[in-house]
Design a protein that fits this description.
Shape: globular
Bound molecules: iron/sulfur cluster
Number of helices: 13
Structural class: alpha/beta
Distance between the termini: 49 Å
Helix content: 25-40%
Number of strands: 19
Strand order of the largest sheet: 2-1-3-4-5-6
CATH architecture of the largest domain: 2-Layer Sandwich
CATH topology of the largest domain: Transcription Regulator spoIIAA
Amino acid sequence: MRRSVYIKTFGCQMNAVDSARMLSLLSKADYDVAPSLEDADLVLLNTCSIREKADQKIYSELGVLRRWKTLRDGRLVGVGGCLAQQAGEALRSRAPHVDIVFGTHNISKLPEMVRLAERRTPSVKIGMEGEMTHWETAPYLAEGAASSMLTIMQGCDNFCAYCIVPAVRGREVSRPSADILEEARALAGKGVREIVLLGQNVNSYGKKEGEIPFHDLLRRIAKVDGISRIRFITSHPRDLDERTIGLFSEVEALCPHLHLPIQSGSDRILTAMGRGYGRREYLSKILRLRAARPGMAFSSDFIVGFPGESEDDFRDTLSVMEEVRYDSSFSFRFSPRPGTRAWEMGDRVGPEESRERLRTLQSLQDRHSRERLMEAVGKEMEVLVEGKSPKGPGKLCGRTPCHKMMNFTPGRSGGHLRKVHVVSFGAHSLSGEER
Ligand code: SF4
């Protein structure tokens, strides 16, 4: 008899792809997707541990699932992802109702662990040996999806001072290019028009393995029949090279939007973070990208209140924002994670101060985001349709090449790619009409 699984995904896009792999594996092991938690026989939390708050959220979810499990016989709870990798057995000591704990390198063992749990045998697997040797081809794809993520590498060798990723995701491993291209072709064959290449540091793709360089990989994917848009995340500003920058003027399928996380605008703090680039180098790459593709949009990540960050350092971050005028950004207060170098660092910024800095940064970002959206009004833009818009009956939504969300009233054209005239904007999206 088939059972059903509900996966709750926290954190980054790597986790989103991993959840798709879990669904793919479990669908071959007699599990269908449950429409809601109430319908499910098995719940998996795919976790994130990048900040302390993320940890707390998972444990509070597990509290809710303790009761959920008692409401029907045979219900199972599993925890995967970064928190599972870090906590291992300790997670079951804190939450004994959890049946399965699987780390970031043990997703392929999930069906076997679920079988054990069905026979009331809990299991924990967090070994990182073997690394990523099993790259699933074309994992679970939602019906009619026009965009898909495609993992090209896993892990990271950078060990930025604040970051837990190398500890929970392991060292950098790149996937063979032939494998990636095969998956790109398979996705195009299923109707996918946009591919988002995924890795912790995509610009160092293949260097350890002697694979083709990243810019060659992009070129080859752009030639896959049916693929009209390519994006990639995450880029490391140090490793983004001239050949890749140049591609933005040559390869039309490369979308004119880049997520290029600077983290701080202060050279002193960037050095303390161990990022390997300075403010001037970063800004000059932005200029070269804008020269290669005029009108290019940028987004970034910021950490405020890193140990030792002074008011002057923080002002340097605000001035970088003024120079680039990012379309959007993700910003957080520094959160010390055990096992990272920053955990040991003194000279901490007080909570009130870092909260205030975050408020200042986010209100500047809101202003820039609004200005960027306003600039789009009156223009015609291509939208890749994602589905129904929550903004009203009959409306559709999708992303522009610059990655802005557009809600629009459709015309008669049909298809995934539509030309939409922008008529207005809201806090985070554009509104338009297909003519
Ligand atoms: S580049 Fe730095 S911040 Fe990004 S995943 Fe690697 S260690 Fe973490």
